[in-house]
TrEMBL record:
It comes from the Bacteria. This is Integral membrane protein. The chain crosses the membrane at residues 68-87, 93-111. It comes from Acrocarpospora pleiomorpha. Keywords: Membrane, Transmembrane, Transmembrane helix.
Amino acid sequence: MPDTSLPRDDLRATLEARRDLGPEYEDALVDSFLEKLDSEITARVRAEVAVHQSKAGVKPPKPDNSHIPVALGSLGIAIPLTAIAAGNAGTPGLFLAWGGIVLINLAYALGRRRN
């Protein structure tokens, strides 16, 4: 059973403050009370959701790390490709090889973004 004393106590305090301060502060007092009430409701809902998720065995989703093999593969291929391209075709071959590596990684990243 949830503890209902907090909203009741806050409401009593708000009504007392309204009596002491007068009606000109009513809007500010109501806004303050509603903010506290909203925070309390949010905390209770989060607690309930956490309880239900733990009972149901729901685990938070794992991060998607499928881009790591593509990045590591690109770097692994880039080392010998750089040596071959620079040795056979010089600087233009080097730029061509790295341009292809960059384009492959860019295409993969854009393809993931669409999904």
